[in-house]
Write a structure and sequence with these properties.
The protein is α/β, with parallel strands linked by helices. The protein contains 14 helices and 18 strands. β2, α2 and β3 form a beta-alpha-beta unit.
Length: 427
């Protein structure tokens, strides 16, 4: 079996990596990963025939070629490979994790930093044990900073991702009731997310700390952190005081910087819960010396996508499409924020929440109670986990919805990724 350094020498000549035999770039290296329902080793031959320079495998299915590289474990090899490559770059690597808002925060930070320097960042949801290595392997010599999103659904995962990515800076957006099944409860979530702080303490890295997020208080208080603090309407140790400008269609933030400069930022984001995501981007932008004018321009030009906090006008109705994912914490925040919209005709369509384990029944009941007490004209529950569901699937919902004649409504759509509530608006 080949050593990591031997395979790395091949990569220096073929600096493209693929894990999908159906999407092979010429002269790439194909890593034959395995999952519950697939075995990439079976496709080593087809990957090479499609143009891959080499295929890295850990099971031999009889394809005899000097372009097949055999290792003990392909996934472990990919992760070590990415870590080895990361060491080639003496640049800041910012790790982002949290229960809610990490992807939006990542994209806002990326917009801000990219306005001033060559920035590499996680694309889409490539934030797990496979996505993080692949993201690291896309760093180029021109990049001056990298932003790595880290997702987790069990303890130990953030620690493992940190060992691969070796971040120099980090931020936890918040701690909420996400992936309770894997973490074993909210205390497990705290410990799991806190692994980022622990790693950065060990590596003498820098942590960006949102003092306006109460869920982080315990994590911060129990650790000796090298922190850069920011806050909302407190000026504790931070550089900024921010106020939400009322009666705006989108989130409008008035920012006062530490030098008393005032700036109004008109975002294209819906929901006050995005305020702290915006402040995170401002804080990190200032830390990395992005001029205030560029921060403002970057935040105002950012348009949410991929079913996250999107305002969609469809026929005469306004849909607040936030269907990329959901957990009890983000559901409650979204409902409370939707309630603040000054409009008489409002409907909330809520999809069930996954990965809650033994907490599922209790948490779905809590969300249902808050939704019903919010004063909306109608609340619609989709999925079997709610105590009372109106529809089992989005297909049933859509069949009913198309027969209605809703006009001039504001409609919140929020649910876990597997429910796919965005299909309600698709042809």
């Amino acid at each position: 079996m080949l050593t990591l350094e031997t395979i790395y020498s091949y990569f220096l000549r073929h600096q493209l990596v693929s894990t999908d035999s159906r999407n092979i770039s010429p002269n790439c290296i194909f890593f034959a990963l395995k999952g519950n329902n697939f075995n990439g080793n079976k496709y080593a031959q087809s990957a090479i025939e499609a143009g891959a320079a080499y295929a890295v495998i850990d099971e031999d299915f009889g394809f005899n070629s000097n372009r097949v590289l055999i290792v003990a474990d392909v996934l472990n090899c990919l992760q070590q490979f990415a870590h080895r490559y990361r060491q080639e770059f003496d640049i800041p690597v910012l790790a982002i994790t949290g229960s809610n808002g990490k992807t939006t925060t990542k994209e806002l930070i990326a917009n801000v930093l990219a306005s001033n320097c060559d920035t590499h960042f996680t694309k889409g949801n490539f934030n797990n044990h496979i996505g993080v290595p692949l993201t690291l392997l896309q760093i180029k010599k021109n990049h001056q900073i990298a932003i790595i999103e880290m997702g987790a659904n069990h303890k130990g995962e953030i620690s493992a991702l940190c060992e691969i990515a070796n971040p120099t800076h980090g931020i936890i957006t918040n701690i909420g009731k996400a992936h309770l099944e894997g973490f074993g409860g909210i205390e497990g979530v705290k410990k799991g997310k806190g692994e980022l702080y622990d790693y950065l303490i060990k590596r003498k890295g820098v942590v960006f700390i949102n003092q306006s997020e109460p869920s982080l208080d315990e994590l911060v208080a129990s650790r000796s952190l090298k922190g850069v603090y920011f806050s909302y309407q407190s000026k504790k140790q931070g550089f900024v005081d921010a106020k939400i400008k009322e009666n705006q269609e989108f989130l409008c933030v008035q920012v006062e910087y530490f030098n008393n400069e005032l700036q109004k930022i008109n975002t294209q984001l819906k929901g006050e819960y995005n305020l702290l995501n915006v402040l995170s981007a401002i804080c990190i932008g200032i830390y990395f010396r992005v001029p205030n004018s560029k921060i403002k321009e970057a935040l105002e030009s950012y348009q949410p996508n991929n079913n996250r906090s999107q305002l969609v006008l469809h026929d005469s109705n306004h849909f607040l499409l936030d269907a990329y994912n959901a957990n009890p914490s983000s559901m409650i925040v979204a409902l409370r924020d939707f309630r603040k919209i000054n409009h008489d005709k409002k409907i909330a369509i809520l999809g069930e929440m996954y990965e809650l384990g033994d907490y599922s029944v209790e948490e779905h009941k809590k969300v249902a109670v808050v939704a019903k007490q919010s004063g909306f004209e109608k609340v619609i529950f989709v999925g079997n986990q709610f105590p009372e569901n109106d529809f089992k699937t989005v297909h049933e919902l859509k069949e009913w919805f198309l027969k209605q004649e809703f006009k001039d409504y504001y409609i919140l759509i929020k649910g876990s990724r597997g429910v796919a509530l965005e299909k309600l608006l698709h042809p």
